[in-house]
Amino acid sequence: MCGIVAAVTQRNITNFLVEGIKKLEYRGYDSSGLAIIDYKNNIIRIRCVGKVNELIKKVYKKKILGNIGMAHTRWATHGKVSKANTHPHISSNIIVVHNGIIENSSILRLFLQKKGYIFYSDTDTEVIAHLLHWEQNKKKDPLKKTIQNSIEKLYGNYSMVVIDKNNPSRLIAVRSRSPLVIGLGLEENFIASDQIALLNITKRFIYLEEGDIAVVTRKRIDIFNKNSTITKRKEIISNTEYKSVKKGKYRHFMEKEIYEQPESIRKTLENRLKNNSKIYFSELGLKENNLFYHAEHIQIVACGTSYNAAMVSRYWFESLANIPCDVEIASEFSSRKLALRKKSLLITLSQSGETADTLSALRCSKNLGYLGNLTICNMESSSLVKESDCCILTKAGLEIGVASTKSFTTQLTVLLMLIAKIINVKKEKNNISNKIIQTLNILPTRIEEILKKNELIKNLANKISHKKNILFLGRGDTYPIAIEGALKLKEISYIHAEAYPAGELKHGPLALIDQNIPIIIIAPKNSLLNKIKKNIKEISLRGGITYVFSDQEFDYEENMNVIKMPYVEELIAPIFYIIPLQLLAYYVALSKGRDIDQPRHLAKSVTVE
Ligand code: F6R
């Protein structure tokens, strides 16, 4: 994980580095640091444990003047959270920041220790710094050649930026299965893990590709591919708006992103519902239609919230399009021997497109004989998009809060559109695809209605925020919504929450029921409602306290509380019912004073397996 920014500029670099690294805090926020070569050619390094704001306070206490430097925000993988383990790491004249994991770092560490290197940290990054220094001194090669020699010895997925104090006019960047983007300025250039760090200074970007090494000075960028041949990479102009990364009137990004959902769904639908009867994805062509036509099975792989969205879609693929669908957690998918289904289409689902487990699952799948692969992703320039046969973008806009909200609902929107598209392509059941399209058109308005119910949800949050355990129940396509509701609550409030299919209670979890464990139940009007009502009765009879989210009337049961929801069409009920659960998690976390946008131990983009 971790975030990197680096620059070689014509003006003083300090502000740029701290502002840039602040924007990458979503990639990890255990500790952060920066190193600048000042005008007297000294390396000034400042590091501290905690959020980037701690670093900023320290940096502004000193007056540092320099034109080349790098900064890093860390999510610990090698070595605990401590100042000594915080990047940048230095070996004499070599300064390094790095994202990812060097798998053979213990062997290299022993080797370098035997050569006399002293380690001040437990990190694999310090191993890189010493290795570069050792290689450079052994052969007296230029730094780029030294880096080429050294990376042959490094195993793992990583990206890094290196500065040599003895030649302080250039940055060298390496991409090895972990993204890096170069931002182009006027007689100054920048490097970052994500363009978001650079959007306020440039819109012009070059994405490095696998195995690329870039030598970046103020006036030049030379990129060498994995065969060490000088190569040209395409320059792109980003149309991402810088303002979309500000909180505006909201207290937290998560709150803003919850309220943005009607808009992000509208954007996701825009120009894709043709004449209200056909789905059109400009990203896809005839080749993909052919892929959909032949698909007889869908295999989805994803992690976390994206996995929960995939779980909802499994119900839809099978009930609406009659296509068998399996969903698997990405890390499990790539770690077991699979029996391939006939004519199976692999779909990866990801907000960031950089989730290492999902990327690894995609890479594993390529030799297995799938019909083809499609990624549904929010980040157009991500590795997952680049490495997939085709992609559909979710268009949620930038999501900064670590807890995914609008990416989940836009993923579900795309998945429903995809199902309608597949039905169209297979020329089957057009009435169903028409119904999907009509209902999707109503979805943003329905979500606006539910967002107005926030006072109701705040009251419930006050009632349950002191609890230690909370159960979530759903049935059918709202069971994955119960899982997602529980995930939201636990990740930002740190309350233990678990989800079950309501019918499964009597097979064990009923033993947990007492007055201390609130039970949240999602019970929209559908064919399973009567069964859910029976489950509620079973809980009430045993003294359990239920909070039922529903648009229906219920006979009174003891300790039952109904949170009355507005009407929603059955088809889109799963998308609609996650909204109150997102709000519930948000208000519970707010009342507990949690760090909502950056919950402890987490990071938004999980770029390590
Ligand atoms: C939870 C959350 C994570 C992500 C997961 C996958 O709120 O955000 O569970 O959903 O890490 O990330 P993406 O979708 O970027 O692959």
From TrEMBL:
Positions of the catalytic residues: C2 (nucleophile), K604 (for fru-6p isomerization activity)
Pfam family, one: GATase_6
InterPro entries membership: GATase_2_dom (IPR017932), GFAT (IPR005855), GFAT_N (IPR047084), GlmS/AgaS_SIS (IPR035466), GlmS/FrlB_SIS (IPR035490), Ntn_hydrolases_N (IPR029055), SIS_dom (IPR001347), SIS_dom_sf (IPR046348)
Subcellular location: Cytoplasm
E.C. code: 2.6.1.16
Main subcellular location: cytoplasm
Domain Glutamine amidotransferase type-2, first and last residues per copy: 2-219
Keywords carried by this UniProt record: Aminotransferase, Cytoplasm, Glutamine amidotransferase, Membrane, Repeat, Transferase, Transmembrane, Transmembrane helix
Gene Ontology CC entries for this record: cytosol
Record-annotated SIS domain positions: 288-428, 460-599
GO function terms (MF aspect): carbohydrate derivative binding; glutamine-fructose-6-phosphate transaminase (isomerizing) activity
GO BP terms in the entry: carbohydrate metabolic process; fructose 6-phosphate metabolic process; protein N-linked glycosylation; UDP-N-acetylglucosamine metabolic process
Catalytic activity annotation: D-fructose 6-phosphate + L-glutamine = D-glucosamine 6-phosphate + L-glutamate
Leading EC class: transferase
TM ranges: 571-590
Coiled-coil zones: none
SUPFAM superfamilies: N-terminal nucleophile aminohydrolases (Ntn hydrolases) (SSF56235), SIS domain (SSF53697)
Protein role: Catalyzes the first step in hexosamine metabolism, converting fructose-6P into glucosamine-6P using glutamine as a nitrogen source.
Oligomer and partners: Homodimer.
Protein's name according to its UniProt entry: Glutamine--fructose-6-phosphate aminotransferase [isomerizing]
Source organism (scientific name): Buchnera aphidicola
Lineage: Bacteria, Pseudomonadati, Pseudomonadota, Gammaproteobacteria, Enterobacterales
